[in-house]
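thought: fold this chain, then report.
action: predict
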Amino acid sequence: MRRILITGSNRGIGLALVKHYLTHDNTTIIATCRNPDQADDLSTVAIHHPDRVTVLQLDVIDPQSIADAVKTISERIDRLDMLINNAGILPGGVDNRDPKISAFGQLDPDAMLQVFKVNTISPVIITQSFADLLRNGQDARVINVSSDAGSITLRDKGCDYSYPSSKTGLNMMSRCLAGDLRDDNIIVVSLHPGFIKTDMGGVNAHLTLDQAIPQMVETIDNLTMNNSGQFFNWDGKIVPW
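observation:
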């Protein structure tokens, strides 16, 4: 039985990943989000698949919430085969970015730091916290959901500062984790999921979840240790740093 933990599972990419992995036999999912009581769509999925989906509260920047989640999960299972660090924020979304995080002249350090806490730091802390379970996993892997907005090579115009930089930082964190976890045979990659029509991506995004998620999952499932530390597009192509 393959065991997968997905953060930020209440909507968008996270929820779509939960639903897609339910089409895979012998797979169970721990679906986490900050406010399960408000995650109606996720709760409905769990109700229909009580033996395969467990919904768990997890605030990825709250140390006590992380510790509680680790304790609860460790009491139920002895290994994790995949961790998908999907939880992330872009206040205001692509279409209405909060100027406090994006507009030069209006930038606010506290607002910017919140983006970095969630997008850059939390995936490392979550991975660190679940490392022992991952070490026991079968063909274990950590997928850090990044963005091609974080590619320095592709940045050829102005920048909205916090979100792209937070993903650039996440990419470096992925490289660091890949090095530290290589001897444990744990694959770690950054993955750009595509510009998808979600609450964050907005109505002008290029892809739907139905278009992107199947290939994204294929890319994830085809990873080998030789791929660890790399930055992939949703369709399996390499994204330049």
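thought: worth noting. Residues 196 and 207 are 5 Å apart (CA to CA).
final: tokens above.
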